[in-house]
Amino acid sequence: MTTVLLVVHLLVAIALVGVVLMQRSEGGALGMGGGPGGMMTGRGAASLLTRVTIGLAAAFFALSILLAIVFGIDSQGRSVYDNADEAIQLQLDAPAEEEETPEDPVVPIDD
């Protein structure tokens, strides 16, 4: 299930990038120009590329939220945050590893 969601999410992201790159640049500093051909006018909203972009963007956000929910819960139905306290406690309880010192120091040989 998760692999299918990841593949679909990747395909939607690639399609979204492609559709955005196919659109005509209208200038105006990232779409803030407010010209008459903007997205909120009747002519701009009717554009096929604009509708496809909006649909792909909505699908991208929905898949992102769904993936966050799916990967946020493990097989036992617990959140990752529930496991964080246990992991921290295990690290605190673990004995510190002692560094090993070599018994015979390595002496470089001059040629």
Automatic annotation (TrEMBL):
Keywords: Cell membrane, Membrane, Protein transport, Translocation, Transmembrane, Transmembrane helix, Transport. Signal peptide: none annotated. Residues 92-111 are annotated as: Disordered. The keyword Membrane applies. It is found in: Cell membrane. InterPro entries: SecG. The chain crosses the membrane at residues 51-73. It is a multi-pass membrane protein. Its main location: membrane. Residues 95-111 have a biased composition (Acidic residues). It comes from the Bacteria. Pfam families: SecG. Belongs to the SecG family. Involved in protein export. Participates in an early event of protein translocation. PANTHER family: PROTEIN-EXPORT MEMBRANE PROTEIN SECG. This is Protein-export membrane protein SecG. The lineage of its organism: Bacteria, Pseudomonadati, Pseudomonadota, Alphaproteobacteria, Maricaulales.
